Amino acid sequence: MTDESALGELLETISKQQLVSRRLEMDTGRVALRAGTWQDVLEFDGKVLTTVHGPRWRLVLIGAGQLTRYLAEMAHMLDYHVLVIDPREEYANGWDLPSVPLERGMPDDLVREMNLDGHSAIVALTHDPKLDDLALMEALKSAAFYVGAIGSKKNNDARRLRLREFDVSDEEIARLRGPVGLYIGSKTPPEIAVAILAEMTAVRHGVSEPSWAAKPQPRFDPSACEVKQT
Fold first, then answer.
1. 24-66 pLDDT, tens per residue?
2. Is there a contact between 84 and 47 (Cβ–Cβ < 8 Å)?
3. Any idea what DSSP says for residue 39?
4. C-alpha dihedral (125, 193, 173, 79), degrees to nearest 10
5. Are 150 and 125 in contact (CB under 8 A)?
6. What's the rounded Cα separation, in Å, for the pair 56 and 81?
7. How far apart are CA 137 and CA 176, in angstroms?
């Protein structure tokens, strides 16, 4: 490995979860690196070889239940690198998808260590605030392009109030997509997985949701969902 090859710089950049385009002039050996985009592809015109290096799209799923299985399998078809986090023994012991690793640590610790970037998505699926909220409070502070949580509008409004107690700002809370997924009338776990991946794909490509699938997304107003004390 020589300085001219720029491989050292390339490896260092990739280790920071950044996408890189490498341009190699075949005649001179001259190399140039630039920030890559997900529209970049491998190209060779006979003189210049352009290669793309860096992380694939990542999807982190909190909880190893039935919906997670469908979502993980479908996401693999879309070339996501999928990771499941679930410290609960009864769920972790039943996880048997060999292509999808499962981590048994606490969600907040693991999400923080992952250094989620703009090519990462995270969806909380346990219905257990002790697990989902821990993961979300870290994900909402990250650069992840998509952060979602399963549950009804009422449950997600209550979740937003809880997140404020973890020092998550209103602007960060407004990034939360909950109820998660496009509104397509989905009822079964496979249908819900389709709805979630459809919304993730739209966000990835900067496509506005169609009017028939759009959910109201008002600015988070804590006073509108305060829990009354009895």
1. 999 999 999 998 876 677 899 999 999 988 767 899 999 999 9
2. no
3. T
4. 100
5. yes
6. 7
7. 10
Measured CA to CA, the distance from residue 69 to residue 64 in angstroms comes to 7
The model's pTM is 0.74
Give the tens place of pLDDT for each residue, 169-187. Answer: 999 999 999 999 998 899 9
Where are the alpha helices (H) located in the chain, listed in sequence order?
7-15, 66-77, 89-92, 107-114, 129-139, 153-165, 170-173, 189-204
Q: Which long-range contacts (CB under 8 A, 24 or more apart) does 19-26 make?
A: 19/52, 19/53, 19/54, 19/55, 19/119, 20/52, 20/53, 20/54, 21/50, 21/51, 21/52, 21/53, 22/50, 22/51, 22/52, 22/53, 23/48, 23/49, 23/50, 24/48, 24/49, 24/50, 24/51
Sheet holding 120-124, edge to edge: 102-103, 81-85, 58-62, 120-124, 146-149, 176-177
What is the C-alpha to C-alpha distance for residues 214 and 192, in angstroms, rounded to an integer? 15
